[in-house]
Design a protein that fits this description.
alpha/beta
């Protein structure tokens, strides 16, 4: 597949830049991007995903706040575009790798949480996280939450690439 369609109203998603990056990696035979880890978080707080997966694996949907913006664009997780948490990048590491990164943090008393970039630096292959979400809306601050579209399951993706930030890369690449 050479294309990935998304709403043009999502200005934060850099689909074309990601596609160019992956296409160029393929052309130059980048071994680091030839094998991927795919993760599907299975625990959530918004009930089972039905029908169940063909594998028989039980999956509970995660709750995310959604906001319907102009022209029916759907914003997930508030102001940002992130649907997962910073720690989801750990799905791309073995337990031993997570422990190594965490141990290195303990040697830095001024750091409370492991930065996402530290996990990425330890990754050996890219990570695709597939999230199954159910949205909740709120009419106004203090108003009760209501289910978005009667509990419709919303699929969402998270991409994490191995390595460290390149200070010479264009901003937000």
């Amino acid at each position: 597949m050479r294309t990935f369609w998304f709403t043009p109203l999502n200005h934060d998603f850099q689909g074309e830049a990601i596609a160019v990056f992956l296409r160029e990696a393929l052309e130059r035979g980048d071994a680091q991007l030839s094998t991927w880890t795919v993760a599907l978080p299975t625990t959530g707080d918004r009930g089972p995903v039905t029908p169940p997966l063909r594998s028989g694996l039980a999956v509970e949907a995660k709750k995310r706040r959604v906001v319907v913006r102009q022209m029916q664009s759907l914003l997930v997780s508030g102001k940002g575009a992130r649907v997962g948490s910073r720690t989801d990048v750990r799905h791309g590491l073995s337990l031993e790798q997570v422990q190594t990164v965490t141990q290195a943090l303990r040697e830095q008393p001024d750091v409370q949480d492991v930065p996402e970039d530290d996990y990425r630096a330890a990754m050996t292959s890219p990570l695709l996280v597939v999230y199954l979400l159910r949205g909740v809306e709120r009419e106004s601050k203090g108003a009760p939450e209501t289910e978005y579209k009667s509990g419709l399951v919303l699929p969402a993706l998270g991409l994490h690439f191995p390595g460290i930030k390149d200070p010479n890369a264009p901003k937000r690449m």
